[in-house]
Amino acid sequence: MRTRPLLALVTVVLVIICGGVYALTRPLPSAGSEERRPASAEEVARSYLAAWEGGDLAAMERLAGGAPADLVERHRAFAEELGVESLTVTPGAIRLRGDRAAELPFEGVREVEDLGEWPFASTLRLAREDGEWKVAWAPETLHPALAGGGRLRIREIPAPQARLVTSSGARFPRDSGAEDYLAELRDGLLGEAAEEGEEDGEAAGLVLEAVEPGGGVRRLLGSEPPPAEDVRTTFSRRVQAAAARALDGVGRPAAIVAVESGTGEVLAVADRLGGRKAFLGLYPPGSTFKVVTGAALLSAGLTPDSPVSCPDSYSPPGGYPFRNASSVTALGETTLTRAFAVSCNTAFAERAVTGLQDGGLVRAAELFGFNRPLPGVPGRCGSIRAHTTGDELAADSFGQNSVEASPLCMALAAAAVESGHWHSPTMTRRRGEEEDRPLPPGVAEGLRTMMRAVVTEGSASGVPLPEGTAGKTGTAEAATGEHAWFVGYRDGVAFAVFVENGGSGAGTALPVAARFLRAL
What we know:
The chain is an alpha+beta fold. It contains 16 helices and 24 strands. Strands 1, 2, 3, 4, 5 and 6 form a six-stranded mixed beta sheet that branches. Strands 13-12-24-23-22 form a five-stranded antiparallel beta sheet, sandwiched between helices. A three-stranded antiparallel beta sheet has the order 7-9-10, with no helix packed on it. The chain is rod-shaped.
């Protein structure tokens, strides 16, 4: 019985000895080392975010489980395409989903080139694989908008085009007939801005957008650029509206051009011809060209009261007979003013052949802008060739043969009569290469007398016009028919009315001019 306590004592002694031997013989841990244990979900998540913020893409790849082989390239491409310059992230609190899944919400701020700070919020999802936590990477880890095939893009917003307004700052009337001219003017102004060295995109905006899988677009960052400032033109809203409405109901292609007599500034262009033909189209001006021929005759020494002959027919030496329009009655001996007022072709043909053989008609036409480029606007004035026969000179004298003019050109001619100076046209207040050419002494005054007589006693007296109106009718023969013209001025507004294949000027263009003037 006494042997049992002895055995117990021996056993205890042996255990102590063995434990001491193990303690003395087991390897000692190295300095700074500790027992390895699996990292927690929170530690993995925070390590991933720290690596992302620091740009350590290799570390991110090691911490991600089941990530695509191009994970690093995706991150690089994302940053480069969107212009991401830096990233800061702030982790939230870990949320465990059982013992195999976890989530860590976080907030981030990216600094995007030219757009500034881009805040976003997302969630880092984790899963346990073989006893270790890994980040369950997906495209939406980069940004929630990438879920399900969505994408992000930087889009440039074009600078808003300058809105052209009238000289008072008011908008143009609806269906004004000036739309094509304003578009051309706007393009020209934008081109000038580029030539002056303004930086491309200075007024443009950038936006960061999320494009959803279904095609919807959400703006994430950026804003529209400020609206462009209105650009004032020389157009008068009142005159433009009057011109546009005067053409309403005209059954043929037609146009009205109005300019300020003292400056050449375009006040209105209502164009129903198409193709900006009110500025670019060249047509025989018919008897409205007698304004130019009258200027040539006055420059050659005639006066409004000079005697001229208005027969039924006139033939230049060795040439063909020229006749008046059927509506013109032969006057016999009369004055230059009376022949102008009734639009006597034979009187002007004879006086041109006898007094302008030295090229005086071409010189007068060039004073009024013919055969010259038009600075200031995209347009043409007109053309006339030097005559080689008396027949050519006779036909040119009343706006046929080689003579062609645009409605703009004839409005400028009327303006020169009222002001005494021919001004090249402009549609903006910018002054550049505009020309100012005075008419010879006595010419403008004489033409004013003659153009007033057209309205008071001549071919335009059949339609009531506002007091103070002066003008000239014209009917021009063309291959397609007869073009109708009326040009004139009143109170500083000079104008040309043109109706393509409209018949007689007095019968078609004059009533349109009356509607235009009454609306001013």
